[in-house]
Write a structure and sequence with these properties.
By secondary structure, the protein is mostly beta strands. Helices cover about 5% and strands about 40% of the residues.
Amino acid sequence: MRFTHVLGRGVRPGRRRSIIAAGLAGAVLVAACVTGAVAEGSQPGSNGVPATEAKTITARLFAQVAPLDPPGPLGHITALEGPAFGPDGKLYMVHSTAPTGQPDVIALDLRTRGTKGIHQASTSMYTSLQFSPADGKVYLTDLNGKIDRMNPDGTGFTTVVSGDVLGRPLAADDIAFDRDGALFVTDFQGTPWKPTGRVIRFDPDGTHPTLLMDGLAGANGISFDPAYSALWVSEFRAGRTDYLPLSADHKSVVDPSVGMYGDEGVGGFDSNAVDADGNIYQCAFGDGKIYVYSPHGALLATIVVPQTMPAPELLTTNLAIKPGTHDGYLVVGGDNGGFVYTFRALGIGQAQPNG
């Protein structure tokens, strides 16, 4: 999830800042239309008749984890990102718009629905969080150009990537790990008219960056398929999700293609996740929903956040499916605060469900 350009890093402002700065007032109508759509996005058959009926799943409010943040450069909103399950069973996430003095990494106890602040930073804008299978530590992508690492309790904090990467600044967005602990990071830069976004691989210790893909329009979500043989990468400003098969050593992309397109208007394709059946859960930022696609691109379902609060809650940025279950958890922000919603996923969660 990307909210603005990286100050001083030469990354041009994107649509997302415009969406947030406007307070998302115009998106209320969009949400109302989405909530009432039973088979939105059904795949057409050869005769023009829908071949399948994509069902609508209504997410349920589970817990509020952050208040409405004070007005700031991004508007009077709260934004959450990067949910991931820790070894203790808690759901960890980042509070991207946390004001000074408030934690920007939060752990949610699913049993009590209580939260605990894990880390507090003053200059970072964290946009994703994931646990490394190599060392069990939390890795945090900072849109300002860093990747940080710490223990699940917040101790042992250090920066593992900073400065220019492969010759230019890195707007580190989302992160995913392969089984060996190598980091795969999206670089949220570029537009359809000037596609400069990248996907970069790092060794497990954050060294030896390798360019996997460039020429992207706001590279954003990144998730492995169940076999860890390919990546699903969303382009926020192009409204599409790309399929990137990997070489055996995971150091190059082999025969990439576009997997799915979306018609998001003022919204965009944000983070994504993959279940054990290979289904792709693609968040639509600014539209209050998630599309669920089969690996072959068929739209299977649309997960909708009901707009029942006084103000819009349309910042559907990222999700996680609890490993071994169908329990999906979606982080949602907007003009009322930061919340976690639940839904029943189509497939069960796997160890690395999101990026």
